């Protein structure tokens, strides 16, 4: 807290920089789209809560609505992970090892009953396709921990269809969806804004962004 008191004058400048990154990142193209994705990932679990709260207050005072959404903790996902009986037949270590193999049949079985620790290895497997990841991100119900693994994957979160699937899934934790909604194009923003199954904060953010014609994300970042 003492650090925050000493640096309070700098917080306003930090949130203004975040707002500029958000605006330029939404317009698409490097390096700002990559910077925005990095900011989104960093804010999910890598920033001290007190600092997040102080930045949120500074953004609120400055009227920077897009930055306040980035800083929201949001509601957790609706389903937390619990292991099923069939997942007890093999050790977790064995399933994690299987997730690194090239056997497509084994990979499909693991994808059909996803575990966060196993998904982490699956996402790094070169035999996994974008379609696999999109289907995993769109799965309903989805485990919050699995959605977080997908969001944290540097390899896959660059893909527009993966971001879209996460944001459109009501089981994705709200803070993750809010940090990704700035990458969504206007057509999909309108879809999100009219989807009653999605959290109101997300629908509101999508509606606001859809009305702003200045920023149009340009598909995949990769």
| Average pLDDT metric | 83
Largest sheet: none
CA-CA gap between termini:
39 Å
Shape: globular
- Low-confidence residue ranges: 1-6
The tally of helices reads: 13
How many strand elements? 0
Task: Provide the domain count.
Answer: 2
State the share of residues found in helices, binned by percent.
55-70%
Secondary-structure element order, N to C: HHHHHHHHHHHHH
Overall description:
The chain is mainly α and 222 residues long. It folds into two domains: 2-71, no CATH class; 85-181. Helices cover 62% and strands 0% of the residues. It has 13 helices and no strands.
Summary, kept brief:
The chain is an all-alpha fold and about 220 residues long.
Provide key terms for this protein:
single chain, 222 residues, mainly alpha, 13 helices, globular, disordered N terminus
Strand and helix map with partners:
Elements: H1 2-27, H2 32-43, H3 49-62, H4 65-71, H5 92-98, H6 104-112, H7 116-124, H8 130-138, H9 144-152, H10 160-168, H11 174-180, H12 186-193, H13 200-210
Helix pairs in contact: 1-2, 1-3, 3-4, 5-7, 7-9, 8-10, 10-11, 12-13
């Amino acid at each position: 807290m003492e650090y925050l008191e000493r640096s309070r004058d700098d917080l306003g400048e930090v949130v203004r920089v975040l707002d500029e990154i958000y605006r330029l990142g939404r317009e698409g193209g490097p390096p700002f789209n990559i910077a925005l994705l990095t900011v989104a990932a960093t804010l999910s679990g890598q920033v001290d809560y007190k600092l997040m709260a102080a930045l949120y207050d500074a953004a609120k005072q400055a009227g920077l609505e897009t930055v306040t959404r980035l800083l929201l903790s949001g509601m957790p996902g609706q389903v937390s992970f619990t292991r099923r009986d069939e997942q007890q037949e093999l050790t977790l270590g064995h399933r994690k090892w299987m997730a690194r193999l090239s056997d497509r049949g084994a990979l499909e079985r693991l994808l059909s009953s996803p575990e966060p620790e196993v998904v982490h290895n699956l996402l790094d497997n070169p035999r996994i396709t974008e379609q696999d990841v999109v289907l995993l991100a769109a799965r309903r119900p989805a485990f919050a921990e699995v959605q977080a693994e997908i969001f944290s994957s540097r390899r896959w979160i660059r893909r527009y269809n993966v971001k879209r699937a996460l944001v459109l899934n009501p089981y994705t934790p709200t803070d993750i969806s809010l940090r990704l909604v700035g990458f969504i194009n206007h057509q999909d923003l309108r879809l999100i804004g009219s989807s009653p199954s999605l959290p109101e904060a997300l629908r509101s953010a999508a509606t606001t962004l859809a009305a702003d014609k200045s920023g149009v994300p340009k598909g995949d970042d990769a």
